[in-house]
Structure formats: structure tokens, C-alpha cells
Specification:
By secondary structure, this protein is of the alpha+beta class. The protein has one domain (3-157): Gcn5-related N-acetyltransferase (GNAT) (Aminopeptidase). Helix content is 26%, strand content 32%. The chain has three helices and seven strands. Strands 1-2-3-4-5-7-6 form a seven-stranded mixed beta sheet, sandwiched between helices. The mean pLDDT is 92.
Length: 159
């Protein structure tokens, strides 16, 4: 499969497609971290990804939603990537790279200078992708300080 056939578009985080993707992500994360209470950070509200504050994106292959991601303003200089997910059958096909690129464009449109994200210690493929895309590890921040044993926090300058 080729990444050329993929399109990444803004979507309503309350749509049925978004619900299905986020539910699959939540199930995967819950299973991976079921032995670690408090390790999951599932919250992104619709108002946080409203125009001017952030964006929620879905990756599509034809009419099939195959991935998603969100970006929300964290502070005046920073945005945070949240809810990154690619369906298992589409992993290693460039979908994640395309979603992150689109989220970085959305962050630039918000006028921020950097993006942050958090992923889990048990998500080696996600960590590797983010590192390939220029993200560097940073100490846990915000809500992730309480789950430092399972959180990998990263940042990237958009300069």
C-alpha cells in the first residue's frame, strides 16, 4: 500500500468515524497499560480542537478512516499533539508520518513555535516514529508528571 492514496482532513471529533478511531485507541492503550493505574490520559475535549484553538484530523484511504490525531494549543508558544492512532493494518505505511505532518501544519497555523506530545514507554514504534520526525525527549510535563514511569514526553521546534 502506498501513502500517496491517503488523505488527511479536518474532522469533527464527535463524528462516528472519530468515535470509532478513538475507541480503538483507548482499547489498545487500556490493554497495554492495564497493570498501571493512572497511566492513560484519554481526554481531549471538542472545544480544545475547535478552529483557532486546535484541530482534529482523520486519515482516510478511500472511504475508510485509517488514523487520527489532534493538536491543541497548550500555551501561547506551544501546541500539544494528542490522540494519535493508526489502525494496525495500516501501520508502517506512512500514515502516522502523514498525520504528524498535517498536525504540525495545523500547529504552525495557530502561531506556535513548538509542539509537545506524550506517548507511553510500551509504544516503541510510536517513539521511533517521533524520533525520526525530529522530536526529542523532554522531562514529563503537566498531567504526565503523575505518570512519569510510563510516559515518554517529547518536543519539536517548528522553527
Amino acid at each position: 500500500m502506498t501513502a500517496d492514496a491517503i488523505r488527511v482532513e479536518r474532522a469533527d471529533i464527535r463524528s462516528p468515524e472519530a468515535f470509532a478511531l478513538i475507541s480503538a485507541l483507548n482499547a489498545e492503550l487500556t490493554a497495554a497499560y492495564s497493570d498501571t493505574p493512572g497511566a492513560n490520559h484519554f481526554r481531549v475535549d471538542a472545544d480544545e480542537v475547535a478552529p483557532g484553538r486546535g484541530a482534529y484530523l482523520i486519515a482516510w484511504r478511500a472511504a475508510m478512516p485509517i488514523g487520527c490525531g489532534a493538536v491543541r494549543r497548550y500555551d501561547e508558544e506551544t501546541a500539544e499533539i494528542k490522540r494519535m492512532y493508526v489502525v494496525p493494518s495500516e501501520r508502517s505505511n506512512g500514515v502516522g508520518r502523514r498525520i504528524v505532518g498535517a498536525l504540525e501544519r495545523e500547529a504552525r497555523a495557530l502561531g506556535v513555535a513548538r509542539v509537545l506530545l506524550e506517548t507511553g514507554t510500551r509504544q516503541a514504534a510510536a517513539i521511533a516514529l517521533y524520533e525520526k520526525l525530529g522530536f526529542a525527549r523532554i522531562p514529563p510535563y503537566g498531567e504526565y508528571m503523575a505518570s512519569a514511569a510510563t510516559s515518554v514526553c517529547m518536543q519539536k521546534s517548528l522553527g
